[in-house]
Specification:
The complex is a heterodimer of chains A (about 675) and B (about 160). In chain A, helix 1 runs parallel beside helix 3. In chain A, the strands form 8 sheets. Chain A has a 7-stranded mixed sheet. Chain A is flat and about 80 Å long. The longest helix of chain A is centred in the first third of the chain and has 28 residues. With about 675 residues, chain A is an alpha+beta fold. In chain A, about 30% of the residues lie in helices and about 25% in strands. Chain A has 3 domains: about 190 residues, Aldehyde Oxidoreductase, domain 4 (2-Layer Sandwich); about 150 residues, Aldehyde Oxidoreductase, domain 4; about 280 residues, Aldehyde oxidase/xanthine dehydrogenase, molybdopterin binding domain (Aldehyde Oxidoreductase, domain 4). Chain B has about 160 residues and is an alpha+beta fold. Helix content of chain B is about 35%, strand content about 15%. Chain B has 6 helices and 5 strands, in the order E-E-H-E-E-H-E-H-H-H-H. In chain B, strands 2-1-5-3-4 form a 5-stranded mixed sheet. In chain B, helix 3 crosses helix 6 and helix 4 crosses helix 5. The longest helix of chain B is centred in the last third of the chain and has 15 residues. Chain B is globular, with a radius of gyration of 15 Å. Classes of the chains: A alpha+beta (about 675), B alpha+beta (about 160). At the A-B interface, helix 5 and helix 16 of A face helix 1, helix 3, helix 4, helix 5 and helix 6 of B. Chain B: InterPro entries: 2Fe-2S-bd, 2Fe-2S-bd_dom_sf, 2Fe-2S_ferredoxin-like_sf, 2Fe-2S_ferredoxin-type, 2Fe2S_fd_BS, Beta-grasp_dom_sf, Diverse_Oxidoreductases. Chain B: Keywords: 2Fe-2S, Iron, Iron-sulfur, Metal-binding, Oxidoreductase. Chain B: This is Isoquinoline 1-oxidoreductase, alpha subunit.
């Protein structure tokens, strides 16, 4: 996409951007669209196309800011449009791995800067003056005291050969908006007025609603189905068995005119079940993982300290329960759904239905939270199967109970760490043995990749990480921070426990073990400075983490039985949207409070016990700490963010909890 | 199936549903009022919180028959353009992440401020502890409630 770059006149110069064939032609309505991401119409109205879904991480706002910056307009002058699934057109569309902002910054800036430079070139040509004497700002190109609005230049600019115009990005030292704006999210007004439309709000004309009677224990399959009473419920249209794998997690769907009618139909359904693991128990799963821990590595000296940590199942439980709408016809498939990878979903649906990708349309809705759950395509496959059976568009709606009990859960894990220490109590060597499960929704991820999360340990303490991966006895998937939330949480817990045992201050311990001058060391110093002295009577926990080209250090103070204040210092490279950066860190901290102090999924008699926010003990406002986010100035490239804060926040909270460090959650039986 | 006359956001609306149908589904699927969100269906998350005769209620566990003739106010009924003090506070503090729970958080706050114009932390906790936010916007919500209280009193 970018063939040449260098610094010229203080501006980063790129040329030959991705050109959409045909769109630059002067025929037809005036439109300037140097790439698929940015276009201006004949009235100069700017539209930014966001290729990746927004589930609250704020990618739509980041994209709008990037485009507004390079086109030198206000944020409000950029209209944001969500791209449908189409990887050939947009490239990767997955919102995962804290990648969206990192991977979109350059293409978005380049697209908008190209549009600006073409507009300036068109104005310069119109006036017969050198390009260097013209300037784009506020929606117009200016030359001395005259100006031409973008709209008046769009047709001329579109007729130019983009390759003939050097493209200069606005250098970061001249940014007006990026890193500086006090603006909130672009969707904020829609949210507070109730106008924001999520997947659950999508209902094409004539759409029916389906709810699914799901297996009562893990892996159970439907045998005989007595649907006479269900079909007699007013409004019920059809009862459809769903084959596991081909149609999601399996079960029996009741399709009706409305959700309450479908729910009444489901209540009337009588199904016998067989197979599966009706005796499954998550406490036993932890025992099995512990028994499978790799043998202790050979230590270079006497092992002075050893600890074992157990981590539970966790549900994603996004506020918007799983849902998807599909309309399958003989000639094509249309899907409207809150998903994290619309492009990948389209490819999968084409493969599964035998349709050409061109005949599969995936419209991405706003997601009411995702946290990795919407990388799973189960609910979409259910919707396609229901639409096939009903011959109509069908919206599949999961209840909260369905959502909680049929998630792709964060895997359990057991960690055993051991250390050799020196005379001052500092570790000189440590070994980390881990037993966990793979992600069943991503079987392509091998143990070697899982083990990479063990290599993120940044302290100057050598030692091996050994991993055993057992077959998962329940559906598992990506949960915010993925395996870093296991491996690095356990490492920090162990360091914290070691410090407590040796009587070494938590901050001193880390300062002595982090490479001097490292970004993490600077972030730790920034967090400690902001946190100030530990309040009288408070317990303090500290932890650090590096991932996605970003670093985070957390100081957590607990007093009177609850977490009072959490300071998180982050170096996320160039900051794009300050409020959004803080929001993602705040969110990671709240996830940490939730999971360290109570929330877990347990399985008894083959069944997930928790069914709603009544018993999945997620944090409420009354136990939420004050969170102070410090943005450490940085010249590093834009780093990842969404999954950065959870592991260190959880570890800092745990270390400063006063509880015995058993794993997660603390103070209750795990599993 | 029965016919119920509802007052929703100042308008008279009619729905034809069994009387035990949760108000939430009547609003969303019969009347196209989509601001109140489905989050749990059992009154445990607060995403659908709306006002019935000015008090916070959970439409997912409120039967249509029980609100016939009463005033139902959803997030859409607060203001035309988001200029209610609570909405303004939410915008100022950029509270929302995914935003899905926020109509419920806002409506719980409106109900709180209508009976307690200057709530302390304990009152905020009591009023909002049954509104779950899965993105973790709680510290901004707390600040926004305080800000809304000041805006509602006409302070800057």
């Amino acid at each position: 996409m970018i063939t040449r770059r260098g610094f010229l006149g203080g501006a980063l110069v790129v040329s030959a951007p991705l050109v959409v064939p045909g769109l630059a032609a002067a025929a037809g309505p005036a439109e300037l669209a140097p790439t698929v991401f940015v276009r201006l119409d004949g009235r100069g109205r700017i539209t930014a196309t966001v290729p990746r879904p927004d589930a609250g991480q704020g990618v739509r706002t980041v994209v709008a800011l990037l485009v507004a910056e390079e086109l030198v307009v206000d944020l409000a002058d950029v209209r944001v449009e969500q791209a449908p699934g189409d990887t050939a057109r947009y490239g990767s569309q997955v919102a995962s791995g804290s990648r969206s902002a990192r991977q979109l910054t350059e293409p978005m800036r380049t697209a908008a800067a190209t549009a600006r430079c073409l507009l300036v070139a068109a104005a310069a040509a119109r006036w017969g003056v050198p390009v260097e004497e013209c300037e784009a700002r506020g929606g117009s190109v200016h030359h001395r005291d005259r100006r031409l609005p973008y709209g008046a230049l769009v047709r001329d600019a579109a007729a130019l050969d983009p390759a003939s115009v050097p493209v200069a990005l606005v250098p970061p030292q001249r940014w007006r908006l990026l890193g500086k704006t006090r603006a909130g999210r672009v969707d904020a007004r829609d949210v507070v007025t109730g106008r924001a439309r999520y997947g659950i709000d999508t209902r094409p004309r004539g759409a029916l609603v389906a709810v699914v009677l799901r297996p009562p224990w893990i892996g159970a399959r439907a045998g005989s189905v007595d649907d006479a009473a269900a079909r007699a419920v007013p409004g019920v249209v059809a009862v459809v068995p769903l084959e596991p794998d081909a149609a999601g997690q399996g079960g029996v769907a009741v399709i009706a005119r409305s959700t309450p009618e479908a729910l009444r139909g489901r209540e009337a359904l009588r199904v016998t079940w067989h197979g599966g693991t009706p005796a499954a128990d998550s406490r036993r799963w932890l025992d099995e993982l512990e028994a499978a821990l790799p043998a202790p590595a050979a230590a270079p000296g006497p092992v002075a300290f050893e600890a074992t940590y157990r981590l539970p199942l966790l549900a994603h439980a996004p506020m918007e329960p799983m849902n998807a709408t599909a309309h399958l016809t003989a000639t094509g498939l249309a899907v409207w759904a809150p998903v994290q990878d619309p492009g990948g979903l389209r490819t999968e649906l084409a493969r599964r239905t035998g349709l050409a990708e061109a005949d599969v349309r995936v419209e991405t809705a706003l997601s009411g939270g995702a946290f990795g759950r919407r990388l799973d395509t189960d609910v979409v496959l259910e919707a396609v199967a229901c639409s096939r059976a009903a011959g109509a568009p069908v919206s599949v709606q999961w209840t909260r109970d369905d959502d909680m009990r049929h998630d792709s859960y964060r895997p359990m894990s057991v960690h055993r760490l051991s250390a050799v220490v020196d005379g001052s109590g500092l570790p000189t060597w440590r070994a980390h043995a881990v037993a966990t499960w793979p992600l069943t929704i991503a079987p392509q991820i091998p143990p070697e990749i899982i083990k990479l999360s063990g290599d993120q340990f940044r302290y100057t303490v050598p030692g091996p990480v050994d991993l055993a991966v057992l077959p998962a006895p329940i559906r598992t998937g990506f949960w915010r921070s993925v395996y870093a939330g296991h491996f690095q949480y356990a490492e920090e817990l162990f360091l914290g426990a070691l410090g407590q045992r040796s009587g070494v201050d938590q901050v001193d311990l880390r300062r002595r073990l982090l490479p001097p001058g490292s970004r993490l060391r600077r972030a730790l110093d920034a967090a400690v400075e902001r946190a100030g002295a530990t309040p009288p009577g408070a317990l303090r926990g500290v932890a650090c983490h590096e991932d996605f080209g970003s670093v985070c250090a957390v100081v957590a103070d607990r007093a009177g039985g609850r977490v009072r204040r959490v300071v998180a210092a982050v170096d996320v490279g160039q900051v794009l949207h300050p409020s959004g950066v803080r929001a993602q860190v705040e969110g990671g901290v709240m996830d940490a409070v939730s999971t360290v102090f109570g929330a877990q999924i347990t399985v008894r008699d083959g069944r997930v016990v928790q069914s709603s926010f009544r018993d999945y003990a997620w944090l409420r406002i009354d136990r939420a700490p004050e969170v102070d986010v410090v943005l450490v100035p940085s010249d590093a490239p834009v780093g990842g963010l969404g999954e950065l804060a959870f592991p260190p926040a959880a570890a800092a909270l745990a270390v400063g909890s006063g509880h015995e460090l058993t794993g997660m959650p603390l103070g209750v039986e795990i599993g | 199936m029965s016919r119920y006359r509802l007052h929703v956001n100042g308008e008279r609306r009619v729905v034809d549903v069994p009387g035990d149908t949760p108000l939430l589904w009547a609003l969303r699927e019969q009347l196209g009022v989509l601001g109140p969100k489905y989050g749990c269906g059992v009154g445990a998350c607060g995403a659908c919180t709306s006002l019935v005769d000015g008090r916070a209620a959970r439409p997912c566990v409120t039967a249509v028959a029980d609100v016939a003739g009463r005033q139902v106010t959803t997030i859409e009924g607060l203001s035309a353009d988001g200029d209610h003090p609570v909405q303004r506070a939410w915008l100022e503090l950029d509270v929302a992440q995914c935003g899905y729970c926020q109509p419920g958080q806002i409506m719980s706050t409106v109900a709180l401020l209508s009976r307690d114009p200057d709530p302390d932390d304990a009152a905020i906790d009591a009023a909002l502890r049954d509104n779950v936010c899965r993105c973790g916007t709680y510290s901004r919500i707390r600040a926004a409630v305080r800000r809304a209280a000041r805006l509602a009193r006409g302070e800057r």
